[in-house]
Amino acid sequence: MADIERERRALELFEAMLEIDVDARDRWLAEHAGDDPQLRGRVTQLLEAHSNNAIRTGGAIEEAAIQEPPERIGAYRLEGLIGSGGMGSVYAARRDRGDFEHEVAIKLIKPGLLSEQLTERFGRERQLLASFNHPNIARLYDGGETEDGLPFIVMEKVDGIPLAEWIEQTARGLPERLALFIKVCDAVGYAHGHLVVHRDLTPANILVEMPNQPKLIDFGIAHPDGAERHDTDGGAPLVLRHLTLTPGYAAPERLRGETATTLSDIYSAGRLLNFLVPKPRPPELQAIANRATSSDAAVRYQSIVDMAKDVRRYTEGRPVEAFSGGSLYPLRKWTGRNPALAVASALSLLAVVAGVAGTGWYARQEALARQQADKRLADTRALTDTLIFDVFDDISDTPGTTGARLTIARTAERHLDALASDPGASLAELFAAGRGYYRLAHATGTVHTSSGSDLISGIAFLERSKDILEKVHQQSDEEEVTLMLAETHIALARDKGLGFIDTEAALEHSRRAIELLDQIEIRSADTVTARARAYRYRADTLACCASEAEEGYRLIRSGLEYVDSSPAVIRRSPNVQSARNDLLNLQAGFEVFYGRRPRAIPIFRSALQAQSRLAESTGRVDDLALETTIALNLSRNLLRMGRAEEAIQVIAPIHRKTLAAYRQDSEDNNLKTKLAIIYLARAWAKAASGARTEARADLKSGMDFARVSSWPGGLQDVPSINFAIRLHEASEALWTLGDQEEACDTMRQSVAMFRDYGSRFELPETSLRYRIVGMEKRLKSCRS
């Protein structure tokens, strides 16, 4: 076999092996490489290079490194090697003429690589690339030849990390990955519009600046589409073709030695999409990637713009052109975008148009649905969809919006009441009302989420949502309805359980939620998140309030196993990550419950590290709240182990971040609650470390926040255990300060509130074990 033929065959086998499981590769290679040991050795070499991240811009070809680069090039002084590839080496450089500071990257092309004709064309292309001005393409500033005749280009020095590192370090979810991919496509489309093909579109040639801003690099050896055909000098184009392709990302025609075109860039973009979205992929995204990577170039998207449009359609819930979803597919996508009419459209129209296919059928469905929407539905749906669904959801994760969400809730409430009480309301209208009440609850008052302070009204909204959605569920088995109903029961389990309102009802809500989730066959990030949270809240209530700690601990382990057994793309969802971190938080709590506090500390730390990274990447208020909860649990246990200085270190960052969030949103009751707990924990820690003045100041701040967030007057007729807990936490700091009289008075108030609650309801086991018993023991030493 000739060398060039063997190289082509090796590249083909290497590309195919990337899709083979690692454990099966040796056997596969033995079957496909025949009796050619050189071929097997070359494929193995390529795989090793790939594993070491060495294959980029010609890493598959033997390199001829630049032995002694010049100390300076023009106005720039070289400061160090950034990296090397098949085409040459890239150096960091700084302008040092004394006129102004400028950091750049300079690429030196390897000696002897380009023929005289190619060098001339490289200069022409450099001028073209210098005119590029796109936010996702690294700028080209200058170029020329060194005194030794080495071609060079001066480029923007991108302050970013390679795409693979961005994925690994930031754990971005699917929406962020697709948004980044669309930006890359826009950059490639810009180049194609200027008749330039990238030729090596791979993860290694994409750097990501924060926040989530890709920069396409290595356009320096790209070519005007089709220009290679005219280069005949010394066979250099063939060399160049091999140097500017990466196995696994190069189109089949390029492996055959054919010219790079815009269609070969589209093939590489399809491979890039597969890299960004690991298996198992959503079927529509797999269809997009399959079209882009077709071995027949005529089947591919004919422009990168068309491919990006299809990805955008997926992100917007619209039909994807590459996906063959059957005659009902357009309607399903329309249903997803128009949930208020979803169930009604499906039930009333399917029988009429059964068997009719295609876009004409879809158009008639939309027309009939619009005809059914009278003024009442149009007015109400416009309000609820725009305010409660679109606007509310858009601002919910943004700090400082509690007041805005409360305003939306008050504005929409009367419209939802009118809709829900209408005896002629359709299933779709009722479903919209149920979803609307769920959102009203999360603006008005909930436990452990960003909201106002009216917990009783929040629970009432959730009850209304639950009643409406149960009726809809009786007549519809749509998974969207089932999931929404399950999430409402989970919220009720959370608020009634963690709010100590009705623990028996909380257990029934979590049981019903799990029952509903069992009816959903296909796992998704939403269903995995919901199940993890259902297990978490049920386990908490079982342990604290039902004397069934073993069952609760089993549920936590089951929840972690369920999350960890889910596909990787699901596990990378921010909501799934948050739910898993909360399960770890509770697992550590169970270790404390069973008297194994030293085993709990590393679990708390692991959960805190993961949640801190997540909160930093998402910026969501509720992610910060969970980070704070885990940190406080860790710090209190460190304090009980006599490790006050460690506790202070844990508290410091969450105090800073939570206080900053509160200054943006002083109406968020959850932030007030967290600050109360933070200040009281820090007061205890400062007292233990001897900082008495600081401890006193924190104690006052903590109780000030507790009085406005923890319902000291109770909730309706139910005494507030939450405020009793804050009093106990204050007494810990006072006792450590040696202020026995005030500590005893505070403990008496706390115990009285606990006992008042216990006279009507069963006291939580955790309150008895960790709070009441200890306070009553100390009270025996207090003067009456």
What can you see in these coordinates?
- By secondary structure, the chain is an alpha+beta fold.
- Among the domains are: 3-51; 72-156, Phosphorylase Kinase, domain 1, CATH 3.30.200; 171-315, Transferase(Phosphotransferase), domain 1 (Orthogonal Bundle); 329-372; 374-476.
- The strands form three sheets. It has a six-stranded antiparallel beta sheet, covered by helices on one side. It has a three-stranded antiparallel beta sheet with strand order 7-9-10.
- A hairpin with a 7-residue loop joins strand 3 and strand 4.
- Helix 19 runs parallel beside helix 21.
- The longest helix is centred in the middle third of the chain and has 22 residues, at 375-396.
- 49% of the residues are buried.
- The model is unreliable at 51-65, 220-243, 340-365 and 389-399 (pLDDT under 50).
Secondary structure elements and pairings:
Layout: H1 3-17, H2 25-32, H3 37-51, E1 72-73, E2 76-84, E3 88-95, E4 103-109, H4 116-130, E5 140-145, E6 151-156, E7 161-162, H5 163-170, H6 174-193, E8 196-197, E9 206-209, E10 213-216, E11 223-224, H7 236-243, H8 252-255, H9 262-276, H10 283-292, H11 304-315, H12 329-337, H13 342-353, H14 359-372, H15 375-396, H16 402-420, H17 427-444, H18 455-475, H19 479-498, H20 503-517, H21 525-545, H22 549-564, H23 568-571, H24 574-593, H25 597-618, H26 621-640, H27 644-664, H28 669-688, H29 692-709, H30 721-737, H31 740-758, H32 765-779
Antiparallel strand pairs: 1-2, 2-3, 3-4, 4-6, 5-6, 7-9, 8-11, 9-10
Helix pairs in contact: 1-3, 6-9, 6-11, 9-10, 10-11, 13-14, 13-17, 15-16, 15-17, 16-17, 17-18, 18-19, 19-20, 19-21, 20-21, 21-22, 21-24, 22-24, 24-25, 24-26, 25-26, 26-27, 26-28, 27-28, 28-29, 28-30, 29-30, 30-31, 31-32
